[in-house]
């Protein structure tokens, strides 16, 4: 081997050593690192898919809701309330409920509303706004949940959540005991767990599990489905308590203005 060739090999070896000792830039490290699973974008307006969850494309239907697994001492009263509500509605005289008095549905009822809702993702929080009654709940991200006795009971409770891959996992406590979904009683120990995820690009599921050791024999699970509304902006919804009211029999009534004089 000639001296020229030998010196060329030495120079090349030195370049390799020097290159390996040069620190890699942060940008290069980021591009080389494996990509973490991205949090999905669920910001926007959504409408409830009524009667199951058949979405766009091939469609995905959530499981049919099951009756609440109430403990024996609560079943009779719950069944009586449900039957009375059905009969009153069939007669055209529905039983007055909270919204007649301009009170919101609260949790989890607001997630089943027939009106559209808006989801806003921001740093440290996911905000859900229901058009009906302009109901607002805030899901605080990556924070520890409080003790039940440290939360003042409210319509929407205290919600904390975290992203587990593509699923928003939420834990809610502190719902007022007179806020009832489907007439189901609950205690201050009730806990609402949610798994919110896209099952299709424009179909969102909210898988809800309610736990209450006082009133339920076992956790009660059901799912709400929503379809994305890309061009919809929530409308103002103001409840004016001057038309509807609850009469002395507990029925919903409406105040009608007298006809103008002729």
Describe the structure.
This protein has one domain (44-230, 239-251). The chain has three helices and eleven strands, in the order ααβαββββββββββ. The chain has helices at 3-21, 26-32, 72-90; strands spanning 44-48, 117-122, 125-130, 135-141, 158-164, 167-173, 191-200, 203-211, 220-229, 244-246, 252-254. The chain is globular. Residues 1-36 and 53-58 have low confidence and may be disordered. The longest helix has 19 residues, at 3-21. Strands 1-2-3-4-5-6-7-8-9 form a nine-stranded mixed β-barrel. The chain has a two-stranded antiparallel sheet with strand order 10-11. By secondary structure, it is α+β, with helices and mostly antiparallel strands.
Radius of gyration of CA atoms, rounded to a whole number: 28 Å
How many helices?
A: 3
Helix/sheet category: alpha+beta
The largest β sheet comes out as:
9 strands, mixed, barrel
Q: Residue-averaged pLDDT, rounded?
A: 82
Strand percentage: 25-35%
SSE string, helix = H, strand = E? HHEHEEEEEEEEEE
Helical residues, percent: 10-25%
Shape: globular
Low-pLDDT runs? 1-36, 53-58
Strand order of the largest sheet: 1-2-3-4-5-6-7-8-9
| Amino- and carboxy-terminal Cα gap | 120 Å
Find the count of extended strands (DSSP E, 2+ residues).
11
Count of discrete domains: 1
